[in-house]
Amino acid sequence: MKELNWKTCSSEYIHKGNWATLRRDVCEMPDGRVVDDYYVLEYPNWVNAVAITDDNKILMVSQYRHAANIVSLEIPGGVIDDGELPEDAIKRELLEETGYQFDDVVLVSTLYPNPSTANNVCYGFLAKGGKKVNEQSLDEHEEIVVHEMTIAEVKQALLENKIPQALHSSALFYALVKLGGL
Question: Where in the numbering of this chain does the Nudix hydrolase domain appear (predicted)?
Answer without folding.
Answer: 42-171
